[in-house]
Each structure stands twice: as C-alpha cells, then as structure tokens.
Write a structure and sequence with these properties.
This protein is an alpha+beta fold. Helices cover 34% and strands 26% of the residues. The protein has a domain of 121 residues. The strands form four sheets. A four-stranded antiparallel β-sheet has the order 7-8-9-10, with helices on both faces. Strand 3 and strand 4 form a beta hairpin. Bound molecules: zinc ion (ZN).
Amino acid sequence: MSSKTSNGAEELTPKTKEKEDFVNDYRNRPNYCQCSICFQYYSFNEFLALKSEWVDPKKQQYGKTAICNCGNRFHKRKWAIMSRKDNYVISTVHLEIGAGNGTLDLSDHDQDYFYETMIFEKTDLTTKDFDEPLGFQIRYKTIEDAKRGHKDTYDRLENIILNPEKYPMGIIPAFCNAIKAGMEQKKTIQSSVKERLK
Ligand SMILES: [Zn+2]
C-alpha cells in the first residue's frame, strides 16, 4: 500500500519500505556470486554492471553471459574436482551463484554456499556421461572446506553408500524419500486394518 503526497510523489508505507529494503539488501549483498577462476565476489548490482557477451552470437535466444574483470566468462569454466572410485564419481564443483545449504536444515538462511559435492554412479565407462546422482549432497562456503569435504567423501564412499541416512542429503531426494516412506507406512496401516476386518 502506498499513498500520494501533495506533490504527487509516492509515499512509502512501512510495508512497502520493508519490501524495498529487502530487495535492496538482496541486490547489494556483497557475495551474490563469485568468479570461478579469480574468486572475486560480486553483488547482484555489480554483476549486472559487468561487461557481457552473447552465449552464442548466432543463437541470441540463449541470451548474454557476464564477463568477470579477470576476463573469465561466467558459466564457461568452473572450478571442479572429480575423483573416480570403483563405479562412482565424486564431484565437487564451484556453483558461481551463492546458494543455500541445500539440505533440510531450514534454520540456516545463509545464501553463501559456493561449493557442492555430489556422488554419481558411472556404470558406462565408454561415455563421458554420469548416471543419476545418489541422494548425498553437501555444500560448503569456502574452497578449503570443499577440498576437505571432497577428500572425506572419497575416503568414506563405502560407508556413505551403505548408510546414506547418516549423511547430508539434498532437499529433493530427502523429500522423495519422505514421500516414499509415507506411502509405505500408509500401505502397512491399510493392510493391518484389512487384517483386523477379516
Ligand atoms: Zn574472475
């Protein structure tokens, strides 16, 4: 809600002001994104002000991508470590855009997780493609934590595969598992009711 002042300008009511502050905070947060090569942070406003070029000049429907002051084109090359162990690939990547922790820990509102480790099955060694990722997902804020987490994931791979519930899980697989468990529980209840009615 807003009202007009005598000179016709919009006067901000507390609610609108709050919303505007929220947007400004978001746009000026110093670590909205980070270059994957020189690791310079940019706020959203700074990111928008960077030089840009067409992703593919012949296909302008793909839009433009920003270029970091170091010359790196965003989304082109990302910092990453990949390790193979048996039929699995442990992949730790830099996300470029700061993200939430990605897990069911909803008390953590931080949006500056820039690294993520996932595990993919790799059954076909003749292609570059991975199979579906396992539910495992862990995010970090710093490169040191990411390197440590990657090594840790590699070392504990067998344990992670055997006891996935003991390790951080991405929010989407966690929800899928919860739905599956709920359906199973419903089936068990239904069949026990049927038993009793016999
Ligand atoms: Zn850079």
